[in-house]
Input
Amino acid sequence: MDALLDAGIAVTLNPVTAHVTQALVADYVAFVAQRLPRVRAISLSAVQPHGRAKDNPDLLPDYRVLKGQVVLAQERANANGIRLLNPYCGLPLCVGWEESAERSVEAVEALEQRSQQAFGVDNRQNKRHGEPCRGCALRTRCGGAWNAYWEVRGGSGIEPPLARVEPWRRGASQATGQRIVAARSPGELPVAESRDAGEPLTSAPPTTWFMTSSLRLGDGAVLRRAGITDLALLTTAAAFNSAHETRRALSELATINQGFEPQQRLRVALGLTALGSLRAAAVAIQRAANVGIDTVDILLVETPTLTRFVDAVRASLPPGVSLSVGPEGVG
Output
């Protein structure tokens, strides 16, 4: 490395953190600053569960420990003029990188793919979002954690740094990291504009909501072109059960979503302002799950009967679909 630097060749270091070295990341940066002061970039990777590491899962670091180390490492890097990078084989944004999305490969690629139809990052199903990612406003710029991390470490350290707040919840319009766009129909939304070369990555909110009560076939593609990341349907159980075209449009969107990585999928939340009969409500919620809706909020005052109903229906829903109850004012 000294010889390369003497020859005027830039050197980027790529340490790979394992469980045994997870508490030494910040010290590593300090060592580089002292011993190799001409190194200007460090790409921080973490053991991924492939190759021999797949057979030795104890090598995987604990993200709960790494988060504090990454934050401290960035402080030391900034103090010494070193550019710290988060590569694809690095860490989810919530593990110390939420304030440095512009240095995270997945975040940059996800934004470029959405705004310019660039190739983007292909997870190849090696990573996935888990339950903590459900409520994260940054999920559109993060592929989640390695599949094996959820299994070996139970998702330790993965927590949403910014909350994804449905538009009907109080404070949604002021929530950091998201915005709610207004239009009478998806067809009235403008096509998302490409980001200017000099515009910072963080200038656009990671979560953009569109709230409506119904959909038509083709609306899913229109919403994607407009840069919408999350769709909110506000209606009643009876209206949803009778809205055949809306459900067909949601099925169409679910098919489109299958062709994209987790951070690129347009998620759908359903807010029910009235249930009618509990039987009709159960049918509506099950139909919602069947057409790709992953969040159902019953916007009514909770009662013992409603609590028992929600518990019974929740047990019948597929994994990844949440059901909650409670009154909320439209944000």
